[in-house]
């Protein structure tokens, strides 16, 4: 039984300074406005002012509507932000949850004491008191253990994901990282236990409740002959540490506690699982004078808010193909260095002489990396005195960067964002696989930001990897990146009795319009998949047709590579063609075509039901329209999930359902599967350009992961994956032992 004796309590604020007992006001005897209230109010201001400052900086960006579906957005902010829904997916996320919940419990517990002391409510005794002491001790242990664990992880045995970029301004926040707030949290927990022990040992009429740590410290204090003076000293030490931590929260890396949920509220919703892999079209493409993003202020306000919200955890790098193969692109480093560039330029972009501008100058000299000078007033030759706006001069030198190059904030303010801050190898190395966005716990949208720079490089500067020129020219002339004759697009279907839509006529409705795609039409290896799907549809009695010569490249590679004009031209023609015919659904074996037609063609008036072959075949199996009879002979199979299918569009269980329907199937998943799949290296137009030299090849790295399971067959569901995984097995010398087959081929081989 819990003790409900009202004596089971303690005297609040015993031995505290007299000022903490004063009442500045006590309206109607309901609430005593004392020092505690003032400290809480000041803490609120210390949070609000920096956050408003950040929102003002973000407002430099272009307008963008992110307020639709407010309830859905609120759920995302609460569940994924405050609820840590995206954090706990990683192993370290469990400890982060412990840290967050422990701090939250301690904060609520302290607030309850304030309510007990400053209002007529009386509850701090008996059973409540006993449980309260237990919960506070548990939270204190959680805080000490988790903060110590994170300190060890970051500074004793740091992982690759925690490595910081070079182009960061030398200031307290960037140099200490999470060290300062973690040390403060550790000390809050430790001094809290010391204070509890000192109080139990020296205060009269103090009950332990169900506390289990404080009494242990109390024995130490008693053995040392502690007096109330010792408690008084510990009280002040604890108070200074707590207030120092609370008032500095938004001036350290911990600002993500507040900006993270805000960023999640404004994340892109739209198509697909979250939004599909839909890129924003360029407005007024045919009349626009500029394309893409050249300067930091040309991003939208949400893209700038992304930079502020980054918590620098490195989760975006865990499964990133470029990071895992030692290439230039590191999405974490890119967003941080762009944030530093933003802060360096911000004073020149905000209204001069305003209160915000004067605060930003302090902001730059302090912990958050802003330059105390306008971009126009600074010199690139070195640190000089410069104007901070209006007639106010800042005598402080421009801070140097952490890379040891001698460059400083002044250089960073005037640096070319594409060539100097991001750099060409970085922006052209992205496969757009989407792991960075999948892994990010605060919803940062990396891909659009990178493609925006590619668009500017491509359409304004004409600066792009020259090995792409051939595929662009081929796509322009023959509507396929291989440059093969467009009139041979349907040659793969010779002898298969495959009807073409033009032959059927515009008034003839078919169940399926089969979108073959460039790879399925022109690549010898992937033509096998196309023929296999025809075999399945004919066995199921599906009425279908293909476009043949009328089908063009969807424009997906060109779009991911920043050639928006070429994409627009191709997509517009395809939409016009598709809109002429009558069909129930489009079926395609290419996840890139699937994503583009499903999520991006609606922007051009092309709204069609689109399914991937895995979804289509699952439907045929469920309806009993095909039967599988040939046994797979219990050979081990591993499925490689395509990024644009599993991650971008959340289609992964359908593929497994189809494979598991094959008799004798012995399927096994590897660690990087489903939405955590590892890229084959072909996406983002990388299929058409050389990988960075002197780095590991992405497709080989992926096959090495799969080979750990010792499979006999690797199943794929994407023509580009077929090629990349097949090439990698050859590079590893296992092409004779390990077959690479599309799911469609496996089903066709198993037809009864």
Task: Describe the protein's topology.
Layout lengths: L34 H24 L11 H13 L8 H28 L7 H30 L16 H5 L2 H24 L11 H10 L4 H21 L7 H10 L35 H9 L21 H19 L5 H11 L20 E4 L2 E3 L14 H6 L2 H6 L1 H4 L7 H5 L6 H16 L7 H10 L22 H4 L4 E7 L1 H6 L1 H17 L3 E3 L9 H5 L3 H17 L1 E7 L2 H10 L9 E3 H10 L13 E4 L3 H5 L5 H8 L5 E3 L29 H10 L5 E4 L2 H13 L7 E4 H8 L2
Parallel strand pairs: 3-4, 3-5, 5-6, 7-8, 7-9, 9-10
Antiparallel strand pairs: 1-2
Helix pairs in contact: 1-8, 1-10, 2-9, 3-4, 4-6, 6-7, 6-8, 9-10, 10-11, 11-12, 21-30, 25-27, 28-29
Q: What would the keywords be for this entry?
A:
mainly alpha; 6% strand; four-stranded parallel β-sheet; 752 residues; disordered N terminus; elongated
Enumerate the strands of the largest sheet in spatial order, edge to edge or round the barrel.
4-3-5-6
Can you give the mean pLDDT? 89
Strand content: 5-15%
Task: Indicate the overall shape.
Answer: elongated
Distance between the termini: 69 Å
Q: Supply Rg.
A: 31 Å
- Percent helix among the residues? 40-55%
Largest sheet: 4 strands, parallel
The helix-and-strand class reads mainly alpha
β-strand number = 10
Helical stretch tally = 30
- Stretches with pLDDT under 50, minimum 5 residues: 1-5, 362-395
Q: Could you walk me through the main structural features you see in this protein, from its secondary elements to its overall organization?
A:
With 752 residues, the chain is mainly α. Helix content is 48%, strand content 6%. It has 30 helices and 10 strands. The chain has helices spanning 35-58, 70-82, 91-118, 126-155, 172-176, 179-202, 214-223, 228-248, 256-265, 301-309, 331-349, 355-365, 409-414, 417-422, 424-427, 435-439, 446-461, 469-478, 501-504, 517-522, 524-540, 556-560, 564-580, 591-600, 613-622, 643-647, 653-660, 698-707, 719-731, 743-750; strands at 386-389, 392-394, 509-515, 544-546, 582-588, 610-612, 636-639, 666-668, 713-716, 739-742. Strands 4-3-5-6 form a 4-stranded parallel sheet. A 4-stranded parallel sheet has the order 8-7-9-10, sandwiched between helices. α1 (35-58) crosses α10, α9 packs antiparallel against α10 (301-309) and α28 packs across α29. The N and C termini lie far apart (69 Å).
